[in-house]
Every structure is written in C-alpha cells, then in structure tokens.
Design goal:
heterodimer; A: mainly alpha; 9 helices; elongated; B: mainly alpha
C-alpha cells in the first residue's frame, strides 16, 4: 500500500515539472539582493546623502571605505550562494581577515600621518554612537530578501547559512551607508562598521536554524 | 534502467529542462535508493521510512533550483536525504510520539470502539475545521502527509503543522 502511495506521489510531482534554467538560482539571488538593496538605498536617501558626497567621491578615502564593505559583501554573497546547496562545504572564514587586515594597515598609515592628540577623534568621529546601529537597521530589508531567496534553496548548514545571510545584509547595508556617513577615519570604519556587520552576522546565525528550516 | 550517477544526472538535467517523463523516471529510480538509505540508518520505531522517503522526494522535486548541473547529482540528492533524516531525528526527540494520541483518545473515551469513534468525532468537532480535517485524513483514514496535502489543497508543512497543533489541543482537552 505504501509503495502505491509513493508511486502516486511521484506521478503527482512529475506532472508538475517546469523547466528551470541553469542560472535560475543565481538570478533568484540577484533579484532578491537588488530588491533588498533598493529598499535600503531608499532608506539611506531618507537619512540624507553625505553633504560632501560629490567631492568625497573624488577622493581615495571614500573608495577605500566603500571597497572594504563591498569586498566583504562579495565574499558573503559567494558563501550564501554556495550554502544554498545542500552538499556545500563549510565556508573558510580566513577570507574575511584579508579585507580587515588591509583596512587595518591603511588605518595605521592614516594614524601615523595624523597630528598627535587626534586619536580619540579618529576612533569616535562624530557618529560612533549611531553608526553600528544604523548599519544593523539598514541591513533589515536585505536580510529579509536573503531569507526569501534561501528558503527556496536547500541549505543544510542552517547556522552558517543564517550567518551568511546576516553578513551579506550587513555588508551591503554598510556599503550603501557610505553614501550617508561622512566619517573619513579608517580606524572608525574598522571599528564601528565592522561592529555593525558582525552584529548582523551573529543575529543571522542565531536566527538561521529557526527561519531557514525546511 | 540502472540507477547510477551518470544515468541519474542525465535524468535530472532533462527534468530541469522541463521533461516530465525524465523527472518521473528519476524519482522512480530514487525511491528504492532512498528507502535503502533510510532503512540502513533509521533505528526502528523512530519514524516511518516511508514518510522520510516521501518527504525527500518532495524536497528533491521542489528544490531542484538549488542543484548546480556542473556538479555531481548524487551528493546533492543524498545531502537532502540526510538533512531530512536529521530533521526527523530532532523532531522525534523533541516531541511526544503523536502516534500514541489516537490510542489515548480511545482509552479515555470508552471501552467500546464504537463509542470511542463517536468521542473522537465529538472532540474533533471542537477543533478548527482545518485541523480536524487533516487529523481525520492522516490519523484516522491513514493517508500520508503528502496525500492529505493534495486532498485538502494545503501545503505539506501546513498539514503537518495543523495535525500537530490539533493533536496537541486534543491532548489538552483529554487531560482536563
């Protein structure tokens, strides 16, 4: 009897066989991330662009900052993509250390050139108390979008997949936040941006086993 | 037809191309493989191998998008099977064996089977219609979750959740 019902199930499933393109998964992920990022961008626009955006975009600082968060986002998206497959291996976290080490080095150089006594200013800037919080907030639309995508895939490492969702959303949100945040100290970025992204990652990892179950 | 990696992969890729017959063949070949896989790993009494096989077949079909055709097929399929098995192990440890509820219902109703059936009906009527219906289908008529889902037009998760909540509510009512 059970054989028969399984056969019936197979017939029922097979009847509903739609074509799925080779790049369907990538497209789905791209769609989700674009929608999430667009919402976050609107939110950043509401906060206001940094007042000197046009001149800042001509300087190196702006791009180093943006490059740091964007690089982390690229690594995380790559992981997210892989963790959507059930047989995926554990991601290698050492990749995250490279952008951090690079930014750390730049921060040290920047610090060595700064006049003495500006250290607190380099660490706290003017917005340290809202920076991490803003990044976590801005990560929310992108995080929800990654959940929408991942729930259609077949992740089996749910904590890892959740962490990757969190890091993707945190890093993308931080990248877009660069359009608002006028801070120029790399030490500031290294501390407060990283803190915001790390918090998003931890929240994602904790929620993963619950929200990604299937 | 032989159920080896090259054959299965060809069928899978054809299925992804929209070929329903290849998909049917693929799932049919996977059925005994999965049964074997679970039978060797699931200790008796933990859960029904059939339910696991069906759950896995459904996941393999509905989550086809997550398969990358540049990679091997069987690791993907067995990773899904393993995931379903582990999920089932965790569930069975975390909850009371729901199969026993029916006998508890009978025991608490009356010694006469006929009366017990009436009592179950009465109890079921106190539940929301959705929960009562899926419990009738899966626990009294003995349909599988997949069949109950197909019959009621609900998703499978919905059926499972409704059965679970319904049985929990019934247990609470009986204990009172």
């Amino acid at each position: 009897m059970t054989e028969r019902t399984t056969d019936d199930l197979i017939a029922m499933l097979a009847k509903d066989t739609k074509a799925i393109g080779a790049s369907a998964a990538g497209q789905r992920l791209a769609l989700g991330l674009c929608v999430g990022a667009a919402l976050t961008l609107l939110w950043v626009a509401r906060m206001g662009w940094r007042h000197d955006l046009a001149t800042a975009a001509g300087g190196l600082n702006f791009w180093v900052k943006l490059g740091y968060t964007a690089l982390l986002a690229v690594i995380a998206v790559h992981w997210l993509r892989r963790l959507g497959r059930p047989e995926s291996a554990q991601p290698r976290f050492v990749w995250l250390l490279m952008p951090m080490a690079a930014l750390g080095l730049i921060a040290v150089i920047q610090l060595s050139q700064a006049s003495p006594g500006t250290m607190p200013q380099m660490i706290y800037g003017r917005s340290w108390h809202i920076c991490s919080r803003n990044i976590i907030m801005l990560a929310l639309p992108i995080y929800l979008a990654t959940l929408w995508v991942m729930r259609q895939f077949a992740p089996t490492r749910l904590t890892m997949a959740g962490a990757a969702s969190g890091l993707v959303s945190g890093a993308m949100a931080a990248t877009l936040y660069c359009l608002h945040c006028p801070e120029t100290s790399m030490l500031f970025v290294l501390i407060w941006y990283s803190l915001g992204m790390a918090a998003a990652t931890v929240v994602g990892a904790l929620l993963g086993p619950h929200v990604l179950r299937w | 037809m032989q159920a080896d990696e090259p054959t299965l992969k060809i069928l899978m890729v054809k299925g992804l191309g929209g070929d329903a017959r290849a998909q049917h063949q693929l799932l049919t070949l996977l059925n005994p493989l999965l049964r074997n896989f679970f039978a060797r790993r699931v200790p008796p009494g933990v859960c029904e191998v059939d339910d696991l096989v069906q759950d896995t077949l459904i996941a393999i079909h509905t989550r086809r998008m997550s398969y990358d055709r540049t990679l091997a097929f069987t690791p993907w399929a067995y990773a899904i099977a393993r995931h379903k098995m582990i999920d089932q192990f965790r569930k069975s440890r975390a909850s009371v064996p729901l199969e026993d509820v029916e006998s508890q219902l009978v025991a608490s109703g009356a010694t006469d089977d006929g009366l017990a059936v009436i009592d179950i009906e009465k109890l079921l009527e106190t539940l929301p219609a959705k929960q009562a219906n899926v419990i009738r289908d899966t626990k009294i008529q003995g349909l599988s979750v997949a069949e109950a889902a197909a019959k009621s037009g609900l998703s499978e998760v919905d059926v499972k959740v409704s059965v679970h909540r319904g049985l929990k509510a019934l247990m609470a009512k009986i204990k009172r």
